[in-house]
């Protein structure tokens, strides 16, 4: 039979058009690619990434020892100690972890003979299996861990040198400069912080001993000369091929008792920076950063005063801290007051002979974990090397400072600070960023980083008195690990996170409603509301892993209940069951939803009525900001 193609062609075209329209309508009924039905983002799950692990134990049976690797798997089961790592939430950039290279350290390293290269590569090489320290602190002139007192412009008693005619770093050319040159050759990108213990004696007033090296303060008549002293120092080191990344104007400016030492009150430091040091750097084209304070965490008002000086502030990069007094949280106090300024942790010593387990725990918890969690870009231990008798040091200087390594003749042995720094520095690259992770008050402390190459690092410490099992959850995947009491482990892996990590298990959060008020547990006796303008204890909720991908919310020891979806919700259950379990959803704008066991959503009910769990679909009143 002969077919009339002229009649069939329009019919075929009509059929194709109908199929196309149907297909488009069908696609419109689905969520857009990358969005779940409630609008949350999704990313393809990574392929069971391998996690490499290194561990140190308090009995020293394991010292940065690599363990058998584990693999991420689809998250399942519950663990009350779940570290939720979220690489999509980032904090400060990390410059590095390391040590102080004192003049005494340099002299001991210079005497190591054939082992000198081995030791320097061990500490500063970024090749695999080395500490890879990316930041080092040096002293401008003598510190208390030098064999004697000196500055770069010492004059006979009664004489001055306002023009700095006699300025010279010649005393550093025997040990410090040669060792620094070798370090820079090993790691050309290393950053160097330089700090004076005192100005030249002729610049000081009110000194108390040791030929004027102890105590006293900077005579205002010599502020300009001292600023030029810093300029000459930076230029002299540059002439040796050594770039000084940053300086602090004075080590421990509130401590007059060390040898050497010099006090500099906050108003004096601010005046020196704004009127002399900052302008001298600017006029000489010096880009070296100026970092304020460089003393204990018990006086956050000092750096705040310097940063609060409107004329000094533009010259100051940030502030530096030690922890011989105060609490590491002072770094966050100053960061919150001046969030555009950087924070650094620059010194802490271990007293010899030391207690390995106790020192490991304290330094890991407060410094390697605590300082970065409080915004520090740097963590430095004091100091790199000492001999078996804790020498060299000045008269009245630290007589029991245990080096990260002990150098005896041509040999060196590793001490506690070697391992504390190495647990981070070997794996966290310069330029990494801290990423979100939660800690637990009485068990697993931790901090997490994402390297420039995309690898992730978690450093975890067991502060409990017994072995602890914990889960590390990353996106939709997790693994479980057990760590002995007091032990520290570093975990490192590659890959891309499979979407947001979901609920922040183990964290205490606040929930802010569409009306910008906070959800309240209402003292556990009445129906919950979303009416509080500021959060208090009943507005804090601990996120508990309820299993099966669900969470429970606990406030003041009581659990939130959806009350079978027919009554206003409460926070009065001592244990959680099906009606106290919620599915945590993430919206495209970062707000979250809570879906009850009845398939309905928790609603803040326009912020004027008791909250319910009876809405079939979520909208603004069913969405909540976390920690806003």
Q: Which overall shape is indicated by the principal axes computed on the Cα atoms? A: elongated
Determine the mean pLDDT.
91
> What's the N-to-C terminus distance?
76 Å
The total count of helices amounts to: 10
Portion of residues in helices? 10-25%
Structural class: alpha/beta
Strand proportion? 25-35%
Radius of gyration over all CA atoms, rounded: 30 Å
Could you give the count of β-strands?
38
Spatial sequence of strands, sheet with the most strands: 2-1-25-22-21-20-4-23-24-3
Uncertain regions spanning at least 5 consecutive residues: 1-46
Describe the largest sheet: 10 strands, mixed
Describe what this molecule looks like in 3D.
With 628 residues, the protein is an alpha/beta fold. It has ten helices and 38 strands. The protein has a ten-stranded mixed sheet, with helices on one face. Strands 5-6-7-10-11-12-13-15 form an eight-stranded parallel barrel, surrounded by six helices. It has a five-stranded antiparallel sheet with strand order 26-30-31-32-33, with no helix packed on it. Strand 28 (518-520) and strand 29 (529-532) form a beta hairpin.
